[in-house]
Amino acid sequence: MSSYNSIGIATITSRGIKFNNLNYSCSRAISEQWYEHAQKYGETQIMVFYNITDLSKIWIRLVNSVYEIDEIEIADLMVREEISDLKLEKYFESIQKLKSLRNTKRKVESNE
To answer: Which residues belong to any copy of the Transposase-like Mu C-terminal domain (predicted)?
Structure first.
């Protein structure tokens, strides 16, 4: 297991978490719709930790101001050379459609 040894700033964009001209993603970013938020309201910068000899993942520092608790979320490198911009756009659209279908199904089930 690699560990981090450096600190940097990443940017949450509509296409992923950008750091050192590389894009990363994590399940939390997808489930909490960070990318959609960036598309609607603009990009956000976050503190990350990384290993200078292994950029296959970064550690994102999340601060919960209500409880003053720090959390660490691991984000994995997205290999951009294998994914065209069009495929990536369709991927994010598909996720949104699935979330919408899930929410519609939940509403129908709760009304039964």
So the answer is: 9-62
* Backbone dihedral angles phi then psi of residue 10, each to the nearest 5 degrees: -110, 165
24 confidence band (pLDDT: 50, 70, 90): very high
- The pTM for the full model equals 0.66
The ranges assigned to domains in the chain are 6-78, 84-112
3-state secondary structure string across 35-72:
HHHHHHHCCEEEEEEEECCEEEEEEEEEEECCCCEEEE
Contact 8, 19 (CB under 8 A): yes
Task: Determine the Cα–Cα distance for residues 46 and 74; give it in Å rounded to an integer.
Answer: 13
